[in-house]
Amino acid sequence: MKARYLTIPILVLLLLAGCTMRFVSEYDIVTDTELTRLTKEINSYLIVKEIELQGGEIRAPDEELYARWKSEIDILIARAESIPLTKLTVTQLKLLHSSISDLQDADWMGFGSTEEIEIFRATFNSIFRAILKFERAKKREG
User: Fold this and answer.
1) Where are the alpha helices (DSSP H) in the chain?
2) Residue 56's Cα: distance from chain center in Å?
3) What is the C-alpha to C-alpha distance for residues 104 and 110, in angstroms, rounded to an integer?
4) Is the full-model pTM beyond 0.85?
5) CB-based contacts of 56: which residues, under 8 Å, 6+ apart?
């Protein structure tokens, strides 16, 4: 009689043991690749702005570049929102988009010092590092 009562819980445990529960999306190579490229572009742009500031020859902000960066991030946000379990990635991408707008505003006002540029560099590095680490951690999990 006891064996009959144990059969159902044992079957349920066996079924659950074979299931994989996911709390985040799978690794996305597109996000990884695009963010790696954007990291290089933005860092290069900040280096150029730093050199301009040190040399006293300050050029107007590259509006086409800012527009392209924002558009590319908008596409990544839309892509991430269409994939289940990407809330954290979407939040980080929106923060990145906002930070680019902040950089653009500061660029228009003119950077006051290289320290100001360094703050932006640190901000972007933190955001990129967080998103890329998360994506690559998902790659190892998968």
Assistant:
1) 2-17, 29-55, 63-81, 87-109, 114-141
2) 33
3) 10
4) no
5) none
Token pair, residue 109, equals 């006002």
DSSP state of 59: P
Nearest to 27 by CA among 135, 118, 99: 135
25, 89 in Cβ contact below 8 A? yes
Q: What does the domain layout of the chain look like in residue ranges?
A: 24-141
Q: What is the pLDDT of residues 2-54, one digit of tens each?
A: 556 667 666 566 555 666 655 677 888 999 999 999 999 999 999 999 999 99
Token readout for 18 is 């074979």
CA distance 56 to 103: 19
CA distance 75 to 1: 61
